[in-house]
Write a structure and sequence with these properties.
single chain; 159 residues; mainly alpha; Alpha-Beta Plaits; DNA polymerase, domain 1; two-stranded antiparallel ribbon; two-stranded parallel sheet; 7 helices; elongated; disordered C terminus
Length: 159
């Protein structure tokens, strides 16, 4: 199963792929190297047990790398990063967190979630869960939105 997340990001569910590849890390290198050799550009690949950890792994060090953040690696690889590196923590959220001495992803992960919820509401619970590597959405087949219309500027290019 492959899900397009953005124009240049995809999630792949590796479940039941053991017959083709014994190891997901080995498979990631094969995919990464084929893209580089056949298409001529580099990609980063993040590997984990869920989407948030895979996404965070893919951002660790670029370019042309394969990284893992498995649950047992969260403290070592993710908690040491500045709070701004956590997916869904923008400038405003980071400022609110830093004002409470939450400077790293680990600080957030180990903070009392009840207090986080008080000042960041439901978004606080989302980022607290992400900091702890909690995310359970399945990889789904991509559903691209249908084109509803073409603007005038685009029409003139097509005519």
């Amino acid at each position: 199963m492959i899900e397009q997340y953005s124009i240049d990001e995809y999630f792949i569910d590796f479940t039941n792929m053991e017959r083709l590849f014994k190891d997901p890390v080995e498979a990631a290198y094969v995919i990464k190297d084929r893209i580089k050799n056949e298409l001529g550009f580099t990609v980063n690949v993040g590997i984990s047990t869920n989407k948030i950890l895979a996404k965070m792994a893919s951002e660790l060090k670029k370019p042309d790398k394969v990284h893992t953040i498995f649950p047992g690696e969260i403290a070592e690889k993710m908690w040491v990063l500045p709070i701004e590196e956590l997916f869904m923590v923008g400038r405003a959220t980071a400022k609110k967190l830093r004002s409470r001495a939450i400077n790293t992803i680990g600080d957030l992960a180990n903070f009392d979630p009840k207090i986080i919820k008080l000042f960041l509401k439901s978004h606080g619970m989302l980022v607290w869960n992400y900091a702890n590597g909690n995310e359970a959405s399945p990889v789904r087949e991509s559903r691209r939105p249908l084109i509803k219309g073409i603007g005038n500027s685009t029409q003139s290019l097509l005519m």
